[in-house]
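Hi P.,

Sorry for the delay on this. The queue was packed all week, but I finally got your sequence through. Input first:
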Amino acid sequence: MRKLLFFSFLLLGQHTFSQKVNPYGLTIINSQSEYKRSISENPDKQLVELKNYIPGLKLDIRYATKNNFTKQAVYKNAKAFARLPVAKSLKYVQAELKKSGLGLKIFDGYRPYSVTVKFFNLASDKNFVANPKDGSRHNRGCAIDLTIINLKTGKELKMPTPYDSFAAAASSDYKNLPADVIKNRDLLIDVMERNGFQVLENEWWHFDFRGWKNFELMDIVFEEL
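Then the structure:
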């Protein structure tokens, strides 16, 4: 009986050690062992590399370059990941758009929690970045930043603002825009929301997967996935 209790205590200690509880009281998965354990319990928690999962998908991972609001590269690899159900929904979106000669371009997907902290510290307007006390849907692998492209030309459709803009026009319902731009933005919002996503109010490019609450916050870098 003593051996059983000791073994149970040891397992509990290992489980606790593999997660990090931050100053805000958030539990964050930050080890491969804990991440793999979560997948063994629920395969939907797998982080899928989107480029390999969705045919014809284009990437423009701005945070792997200096072409972003931080003016520095915060990712070592230009990759995009999302939880398996999120990837499946994006695959449906891509297939639907392809019928009209269109497709998706991804700016960002899963984002380690430490990057969210960095963004919050660097951002001049905190309304456009997630607060570390709550974490981000990106940290759960359940948020996608994206736009629509013409598959033939590879060019992006005209949208209200560039990606990561802090302007008022970045709002998902901003009205003072050319008709063709509103049409393109609403097309993106419509196809995403019909496939399980919700647009963020102040960012036309940001979409949260509606089941995000079922997934933990994570702080594992791309190289370890």
